[in-house]
Write a structure and sequence with these properties.
The protein is mainly α. It has one domain. It is 76% helix and 4% strand. The chain is built from 9 helices and 2 strands. It has a two-stranded antiparallel sheet. Helix 6 packs across helix 8 and helix 8 packs antiparallel against helix 9. The longest helix is centred in the N-terminal third of the chain and has 31 residues. The radius of gyration is 20 Å and the shape is globular. The termini are far apart. This is Succinate dehydrogenase cytochrome b subunit. Keywords: Membrane, Transmembrane, Transmembrane helix. InterPro entries: Cytochrome_b-558, SQR/QFR_C/D.
Length: 226
């Protein structure tokens, strides 16, 4: 197994792991967004609570939670490892350096963007995910089944101005993170061609904006209109 360890502990190997886990997390964002769109139903939260109950009690989804956690851990760990390795390889900055001429803002600030997203993720999990596992939510009866009233927690949280601001800023950070990361993942995996790269880049930009706008619209909707 030494070849396997050496491969995936190298810079190239870590970049491959980051690319695969990053694309996997993108698929999670799509699924999560589609489910959370139930918040816009004008039914007092019934559809969203049914969706949340299904996600929390389906055995396949429960297994995927561990896969998702592993994806986050590997993605963050490799990002930190690559950053430290790059700094160690060049401890003294170039005397003349104009990175803005060779890269965009998001690619030069992936660490900052990732840190903002990580802080938001910790707060978000503490506010929504943890109460579903510890029984800290009110209950509501739907079709004869007692389920967690996660909708009320969402509605109450999105009435807190600082949380709404944090949420929106984090979605902006996520959008910039995805704009660079999406294309970079395909390039790392060898899917880089002058004919297809512009299409991948364009799709990545559209994906980043649409997904993050969808998430950002939720707290703004509750804060302004509910």
């Amino acid at each position: 197994m030494s070849w396997f360890t050496k491969t995936f502990s190298s810079s190239i190997g870590r970049k491959i792991v980051m690319s695969i886990t990053g694309l996997f997390l993108c698929s999670f964002l799509v699924v999560h967004l589609i489910g959370n769109l139930q918040l816009f139903n004008n039914d007092g939260g019934q559809a969203f609570n049914v969706y949340s109950h299904f996600m929390g009690h389906n055995p396949v989804i429960r297994v995927m939670e561990f896969v998702l956690l592993a994806g986050f851990v590997f993605h963050i760990w490799d990002a930190v490892a690559l950053t430290r390795r790059n700094k160690a390889a060049r401890p003294i900055a170039y005397a003349v350096n104009h990175p803005e001429q060779n890269s965009n803002w998001s690619s030069r600030n992936m660490g900052l963007l990732g840190t903002v997203i990580l802080v938001f993720l910790i707060i978000h999990l503490y506010n929504f995910f943890l109460p579903t596992k510890t029984g800290g939510l009110d209950k509501v009866m739907i079709d004869g089944v007692m389920v967690d009233n996660l909708y009320i927690r969402v509605a109450e949280s999105f009435k807190i101005w600082w949380y709404v601001v944090l949420y929106v800023i984090s979605m902006i950070a996520l959008a910039y993170h995805l704009m660079h990361g999406f294309q970079s993942a395909f390039q790392t995996l060898g899917l880089n061609h002058k004919k297809y790269t512009p299409a991948i880049k364009g799709f990545g930009y559209a994906f980043s904006i649409i997904v993050c706008l969808g998430f950002a619209a939720m707290p703004l909707y509750f804060f302004l209109f509910k």
